[in-house]
Amino acid sequence: MKTHLLFFMLLICGISFGQAQIENSGFEGAWEDVTGSEDEPEEWSSLKTADALGFFAPIVLFQSTDAHTGTYSARLKNTTTGGIVANGIMTNGQVHADFDPEEGYVFTNTDNSDWYYSFTDRPDSLVAWVKYNPEGGDRGKLEILLHTSGAEGKLPEAGSTSHWVAKARIDVEGSISEWTRVSAPFNYFSGDNPTYALMVVTSGDSTIAVDGSEMWIDDIELIYNPFGTGVEENENEISVFTSGSDLVINTESAQNGTVRLFGLDGRLVLEEQLNGTNNRFGLKSKGVFLYQIEINGTIQIGKVTFVN
User: Fold this and answer.
1) pTM
2) Nearest to 196 by CA among 268, 113, 254
3) What class is the 2-10+227-306 domain?
């Protein structure tokens, strides 16, 4: 019990201190005046502040008092103009707009501090709270790219991705009438620390977005593993990995012990006894989890990711 409590305390301390978050992630900061548009939330931008065609672009980003916490959330809505469906979109970078939707993207504009977000940490997962009212088979998206300064950060990326450090993406599908927590793990491509974080949120499915789809978003959060990326101890000759939706734990000899699996919010999601050399435990959730294995008074800790 003392070991379990210490593990949980370390988890809380690791999450609470010194780790970067996306600015104005709850949309409680100032909403800034934009000529010819509804206000845009501080640290975020949309079509009206695109690098081109902002004058012609429809309004797709709105302040909403339907909030998960606090007073405000952001509401995105797909809107048709000139026969083209403009995706409800916002980014902490800048939008590049084009009359051809296939040529549109968001990017880290390092020439202007209004359109980039400096970021050097290595989070484990992306979390947010959403509501969604799609039309047809539309789907929304939350995507964040961590990249270095070697090349322009851009989503979607059409060129080289050698400057990518990590990316996380959440697809939002189906009607969601109540505030719902969504999450996805970061997929890391290199051991480098990033220079920038570029995030984009849309209420429609890229160039096939459907007119009228709406999404509300609030309380975006980056979750961190308090033990660092890839921490794993193997003093007890135990291998831990995932296979589909199963947590697999193999030992060299038959051992009795206990495995506990924690979400990155500190919640205990699984506690089972180990019996024999091969153990499988099903988990229906996606994301990054921390495990604690206790055998004969010794502890092994580490991190696993479920993608199915």
Assistant:
1) 0.70
2) 113
3) mainly beta
